[in-house]
Amino acid sequence: MCGVWQGHASPSTPDLVFASKGLVAGPLDRIVQQRDIPVYYDYLIIPFHLGMRSRPAQPMATAMHPSRLDALRVRHLRLLDLIAGLGSLTAAAEQLGISQPTATKLLQDMERVLRCSLVDRNRRGGELTESGRRALERIRLAVHAIDQVPDAVTVIPHYPTTRVGLLPVAGISLLPQTIKNLMTRGRLPRLQLHEGAVGKLTELLVDGQLDCIIGRLEPNGGHSVAGLEITQLNNDPYELACSAQNPISRRRAVNLRDLCDQPWILPPRESHTRQAFETAFSSQGLPAPTPIIESPFFYASFAVVDGNPQFLTIAPRSSISRHAGPERIRAVKLSTPFPDDHMVFITRPDLMEMHALALLRDSVREVAANFSIHR
Description:
The chain is α/β, with parallel strands linked by helices. The chain has 4 domains: 2-60, no CATH class; 67-150, Arc Repressor Mutant, subunit A (Orthogonal Bundle); 155-235 and 341-369, 3-Layer(aba) Sandwich (D-Maltodextrin-Binding Protein, domain 2); 238-331, D-Maltodextrin-Binding Protein, domain 2 (3-Layer(aba) Sandwich). Helix content is 37%, strand content 18%. It has helices spanning 28-33, 66-69, 74-86, 89-96, 100-114, 130-153, 168-173, 175-184, 198-206, 272-282, 298-307, 317-324, 355-369, and strands spanning 2-5, 23-26, 43-45, 55-56, 119-122, 125-128, 161-166, 190-195, 212-215, 229-235, 238-243, 265-266, 293-294, 312-316, 329-331, 342-347. It has a 5-stranded mixed beta sheet with strand order 8-7-9-16-10, sandwiched between helices. A 4-stranded mixed beta sheet has the order 2-1-3-4. Strands 14-11-15 form a 3-stranded antiparallel beta sheet. Helix 3 (74-86) crosses helix 4 (89-96), helix 4 (89-96) packs across helix 5 (100-114) and helix 8 (175-184) packs across helix 13. The relative contact order is 0.10. Residues 1-64 have low confidence and may be disordered.
């Protein structure tokens, strides 16, 4: 590959003309400093009267040089994330508060540094290429980590913030004692709690918006947890529950077949609990009942069952035993109980270097080891 200088030492000096395969012509500073063209040259050919002879340039590197990545700034990274979310370079520019030409220049900077096309422009706006999507997986981790820096060094610097994703049952069964233990030892970090379904929480963890999850693994595989660090905690299987006034509460060895036509209040279909419920029926060749009422909250379901004895629901054993009360809500005695279902602590291996996260994991594990459920 040759770089050829096109310059004017004086009005009478003609441009140097050279024709060869792989020829790139342009201003001297552009060729020498590699500012605009993402290639390396084997030789630079310039006029001898400028006092410079052809000289070899650096060979093409096989790996990305750190200095090239150093040219990227935070708004470069945010731009790609916004394009992916908004599907438009124009909309992304507006969100960043910059002009579209500036946004285009930022995108070109990234593509030059990474040496690949990141966005396909089309009539609908812009869509990330496969390379763009792979880059965004890493970029989101960086952006979300950067967003946490101001919070980490302000307010109470010696109390680092840990972002915890929770299934509701974890907030009921494990978190209170965990907080108490850490508080007693003077090691309680600042906690940001986020409740949600397992799948959504896993996505947030992988994207860098959470530091850990206290919950369950999805039945039948669910969202991939490959590459995540998983610590098994206590066993807390699901049970069916009904009002103490419901005749079913006094029966022994109840079959699921007898419950198919009962009125139900159940969590949403995408929830771990609902999936476990439907799996229990389908594993016995039965159609899972369709709920009359859907509610993501166990305590709301208990209130409905308590006030309407004909209804049944499902909840973790810990929720039924600790918060429903045997005089109001009782577990249904099934002939085939639900299988064991352990709570787990999930995080990314690279985050375990955070001292506060390691303390939280160890404390949750300690509480889980001493956890007992009274039926």
